[in-house]
């Protein structure tokens, strides 16, 4: 047992500690945002279930779509000096939520890229559920070790071709700062490594492993998350090294489809997550987008409800010409993009406080670590040693 007051310490968008009670509240707030419903029992495997879109998909699935199954995340426990990661605390609370909702849901803390994890999870599915109906692949990782070669690949956030200088958002204390960041072009090796980490290879391996063990139900479908975004972020995101990996992921869906698997990518909209806040320019873009859209900006939980509705057949799939499920249409309308473009072009250090929703963005970043969550007493001591849920 180890109780203490936890304060935000860190630099930029990265914090060293997470607030356990804040993370609990984040999970409860997500659950409160969906309409509870008793649905038929469906079994899902969610990879990347502790954070961002994967967490929202897990909670929407548990609270509104009656899923049982397994969530996989890769999180760190508390040490003598540091708290556990936010995803650890959120997982502990999501497990409580699942139990309260009467769901049979287990969380595995392990590297999804490893064959040992696949074996462990497949054994669990075979023992506990027999077959699965849905596989959601929502991993965002900086590196991957391929267990078959032992080689480790690093994902790069680089352009393709020429360097690109983007406006970006930073903070001096709580004050927004407009900065410029130059992103270098990827080498061929950077590109190949990024595709290895964030492309479709591991997703396809999961599907193949499940198929080999005969663990796919008759109406099985699988979705991996992708992003397109605005041409403002295009040179760094979609036309950059990460975009090459997303193109590979989308191609994997088409290949799996040809093999008879109901495989899709879902194009989600911009959201503030640990993964996205590391990308130069994305923070500024997202805060301008939020200023434009206000509360009509679709949250990850709203998009997750829409995704479940589509993959369970409750509503028709909103597919584009490349067979991708589009959850991001609200982001890319010409009205929204015209407004965000105008703000992006004109924003200066003098106008950033007016043009960007920087307070919202700052609070969202802190919320990723359980800070700035309304209703939480940050002066109180909290238990930081929280066990990983076992079920
Ligand atoms: N954030 C956005 O704006 C946005 C928009 C559209 C699509 N997406 C996509 O959504 C997906 C998830 O991204 P996010 O932004 O929610 O990220 P995130 O950082 O919030 O979550 C990443 C998740 O992956 C898990 N993870 C990381 N490495 C792992 C490993 N080796 N084994 C098992 N689990 C691992 C983490 O534990 C966490 O649960 C990505 O494919 C991303 O491209 C994100």
From TrEMBL:
- Reported EC number(s) for this entry are 1.3.1.44
For molecular function, the Gene Ontology terms on record are:
enoyl-[acyl-carrier-protein] reductase (NADH) activity; NAD binding; trans-2-enoyl-CoA reductase (NADH) activity
Q: In which pathway does it act?
A: Lipid metabolism
Q: Where is the Enoyl reductase FAD binding domain?
A: 319-382
Print the keywords alphabetically: Fatty acid biosynthesis, Fatty acid metabolism, Lipid biosynthesis, Lipid metabolism, NAD, Oxidoreductase
Q: Which Gene3D superfamilies match?
A: NAD(P)-binding Rossmann-like Domain
Q: Where does the Trans-2-enoyl-CoA reductase-like NAD(P)H binding domain lie?
A: 5-79
Please give the SUPFAM superfamilies that the UniProt record associates with this protein: NAD(P)-binding Rossmann-fold domains (SSF51735)
Which biological processes are named by the entry's GO terms?
fatty acid biosynthetic process
Which domain of life does the UniProt lineage start with? Bacteria
Which Pfam family, just one, is annotated for this protein? Eno-Rase_NADH_b
**Keyword match Lipid metabolism:** yes
| All copies of domain Trans-2-enoyl-CoA reductase catalytic, residue ranges | 82-310
- Name-wise, this protein is trans-2-enoyl-CoA reductase (NAD(+))
């Amino acid at each position: 047992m180890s109780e203490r007051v936890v304060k935000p310490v860190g630099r930029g968008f990265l914090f060293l500690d997470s607030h356990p009670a804040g993370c609990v509240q984040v999970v409860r707030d997500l659950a409160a945002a969906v309409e509870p419903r008793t649905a038929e029992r469906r079994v899902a495997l969610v990879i990347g279930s502790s954070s961002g879109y994967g967490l929202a998909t897990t909670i929407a699935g548990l609270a509104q779509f009656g899923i049982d199954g397994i969530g996989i995340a890769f999180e760190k426990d508390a040490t003598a000096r540091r708290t556990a990661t936010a995803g650890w605390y959120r997982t502990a609370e999501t497990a409580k939520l699942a139990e309260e909702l009467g769901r049979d849901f287990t969380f595995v803390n392990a590297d999804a890229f490893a064959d040992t994890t696949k074996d462990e999870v497949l054994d669990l599915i075979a023992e506990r559920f027999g077959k699965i109906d849905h596989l959601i692949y929502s991993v965002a990782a900086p590196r991957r070790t391929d267990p078959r070669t032992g080689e480790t690949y690093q994902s790069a956030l680089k352009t393709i071709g020429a360097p690109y200088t983007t406006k970006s958002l930073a903070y001096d204390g709580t004050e927004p700062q407009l900065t410029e960041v130059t992103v270098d072009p990827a080498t061929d090796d950077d590109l190949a490594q990024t595709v290895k980490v964030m492309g479709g290879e591991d997703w396809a391996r999961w599907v193949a492993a499940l198929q080999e063990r005969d663990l796919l139900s008759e109406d099985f479908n699988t979705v991996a998350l992708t992003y397109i975004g605005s041409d403002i972020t295009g040179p760094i995101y979609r036309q950059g090294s990460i975009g090459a990996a997303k193109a590979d992921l989308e191609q994997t869906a088409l290949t799996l489809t040809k093999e008879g698997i109901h495989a899709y990518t879902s194009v989600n909209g911009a959201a503030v997550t640990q993964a996205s806040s590391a990308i130069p320019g994305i923070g500024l873009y997202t805060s301008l987008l939020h200023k434009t859209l206000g509360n009509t900006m679709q949250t990850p939980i709203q998009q997750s409800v829409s995704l479940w509705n589509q993959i369970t057949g409750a509503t028709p799939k909103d597919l584009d010409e490349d067979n991708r499920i589009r959850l991001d249409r609200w982001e890319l309308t010409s009205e929204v993009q015209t407004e965000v473009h105008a703000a992006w072009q004109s924003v200066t250090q003098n106008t950033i406080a007016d043009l960007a929703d920087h307070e919202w963005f700052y609070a969202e970043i802190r919320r990723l670590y359980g800070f700035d969550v309304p209703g939480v007493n940050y002066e109180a001591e909290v238990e930081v040693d929280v066990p990983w849920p076992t079920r």
